[in-house]
Structure formats: C-alpha cells, structure tokens
Amino acid sequence: MKYLLSMMTIVMMSGFATAAMTEDITMNELENRIEAGTVTLLDVNGTSTYKKGHIPGAIDFESQKAMLAAQLPEEKDALIVAYCGGPKCSAYKRGVKAAKELGYTNIKHFSEGLSGWKAAEKEVETE
C-alpha cells in the first residue's frame, strides 16, 4: 500500500513539474516571433472560444489534437507556445504535455493568455 501511494505521488508530482518547468514568453518576444514567423501557437481555450477570437496564426488545440503532429513543425527544437485564457488559467498544460509527448523541446507558455493579448489591444483572428 505504501508503494502504491508513493507511486501515485510521484506520478502526480511529475505532472506539476512539467508545467512548472515551462518557461514563460513575454508579449514583446511573442510578437517578435510571430512577426518573424518563428513560432507555432497552440490555443488551448477550446474550440468555441477559438472561433470567437484567437492570436493570429494559432492552432485550435481542441479540434486539432488528434492531428497535432501534422500541424506542428518537423524540427523538434522549433518554438511552440501554448496559451489559454490568462494568468489564472491552467488549460495550457494540455498543449504543453501534447507537444512534449511528440518530442518537442522548445515549448513556452504565454501566461498573459488571450485576455492579456486583447487587453493590450492586439489583433485577434475570428472564424
């Protein structure tokens, strides 16, 4: 029983460590990378929110999850940025986890999220 509890604790903590180890990207750096075409964005807000507005060029994680490997760059060190609603949202972790499972090594989190992007009066795309 102690072994089982120990293993459950390790598994749970590894999930937290993965998210905690995801480096943040600033809005300024993100804008520069978007402009240069050197970032792939994962919008992890859900399809209905994605359709109402998302950062230009972002992939709708929810609808593309099953085909994510085909949507991401071939280079495993390419910059992937996951974001969700804002600083208190943790949905981005699903995008981070999926990209890591596909072997990507340069994954960042835009913690300001869609709410921060809109508050800064940045362009959004709608569908």
Question: Would you write up a description of this structure?
Answer:
With 127 residues, the protein is an alpha/beta fold. The protein has a single domain (21-119), classed as Rhodanese-like domain (Oxidized Rhodanese, domain 1, 3-Layer(aba) Sandwich), CATH 3.40.250. It is built from seven helices and five strands. Strands 1-5-4-2-3 form a five-stranded parallel beta sheet. β2 (40-43), α3 and β3 form a beta-alpha-beta unit. It is globular, with a radius of gyration of 15 Å. The termini are far apart.
Summarize the structure.
With 127 residues, this protein is α/β, with parallel strands linked by helices. The chain is 47% helix and 13% strand.
H/E order of the elements? HEHEHEHHEHEH
Instruction: Give the terminus-to-terminus CA distance.
Output: 51 Å
Radius of gyration: 15 Å
Mean pLDDT: 89
Proportion of residues in extended strands:
5-15%
Superfamily at the CATH H level? Rhodanese-like domain
Class from helix and strand fractions: alpha/beta
The strand line-up of the biggest sheet is 1-5-4-2-3
CATH class: Alpha Beta
Uncertain stretches of 5 or more adjacent residues: 4-19
Tally of discrete structural domains: 1
Biggest sheet, open or closed, and with what strands and sense? 5 strands, parallel
CATH architecture: 3-Layer(aba) Sandwich
Helix content: 40-55%
